[in-house]
Amino acid sequence: MSHTAHIPSHRKPRRSASKLALRAGVAGGVLGTIAVAGAAGPANAEPVTETIEMPTLGSLDAGTGLASAVAASAEASQQEALDQNLQTQEDAALQKAAKEAKKAKSEADRKAAAERAEKARLKAEQERKEAAARASRDSARTQLSSTSASNDSGSTASDSGSQTQAPTGSAAAIVAFARAQIGDAYVSGGTGPNSWDCSGLVQAAYRAAGIDLPRISYEQSSMGTSVSLSNLQPGDILYWGSRSGSYHVAIYVGGGKYVGAQNPSSGVVEHTMDWDTPSGAVRIL
Fold first, then answer.
1. How open is the CA angle 17-18-20, to the nearest 5 degrees?
2. 3-state SS class at 82
3. Which pairs with CB-CB distance under 8 Å and at least 24 residues apart come from 144-147?
4. How far, in Å, CA of 248 to CA of 279, rounded?
5. What is the pTM of this model?
6. What pLDDT is stored for residue 262 in this prediction?
7. Rounded to whole angstroms, how far apart are CA atoms 247 and 219?
8. Backbone angles phi, psi at 228, to 5 degrees
9. What percent of the chain has pLDDT over 70?
10. N or C: which end of the chain has fewer CB within 10 A?
């Protein structure tokens, strides 16, 4: 073997200078800390026999549970606040609806009261007009009964002349139909054949002569030509009240008489002109 051959060394490799310096620094720091702690402590200090335990996994779980409980409480508080806000809104809506309903009822009651008052006023006005018409007829009857036959007015004389006038043509058909219904019942809205009201009888009598008339009394008295009570002819329509607002009609049949559906107690009757003097007359024929 060559004397120059490499012989492996059995010594441990030297540590690097940097690692040795690092180890020395750490060891020196630990020793220095122990020395300072020993110097600062009391001379008769007892050796430490207890160690400080680090938090365990169980304690960490307890903290997590507490945080969850706090979060749940906050969420519950928030939900309670939302519920209270919703309840407040619902209460406000109910109060508003109640106020509106009360206001609507008050308005409806006011309108109903106004309608009742208007109906009462119209009824009173109608009764006043009828009373005035009755008073006028009573006055006319009194005046006629107090006048002697020798001092009758020209209208009475003319009417007397018409008493001898016999109806002909359409007038005869109208008069004959009206007289044929004498004794029938009076029924409001009646149009025959056995019960009538005043305008229903007049309409049917004219229909018998081939003439169509409106159904209502004030419409019938608004037709034709106005004639005076001193110049009547058979078939003329007599009316009570104003011409455009009459409340009763009948048919003049000649001889100073008329036929009409008078009222429920008397039915269809024939009366003389002075029994209930009409307000006016119209001629259709």
1. 65
2. helix
3. 144/274, 144/277, 145/274
4. 10
5. 0.45
6. 94
7. 10
8. -80, 160
9. 64
10. N
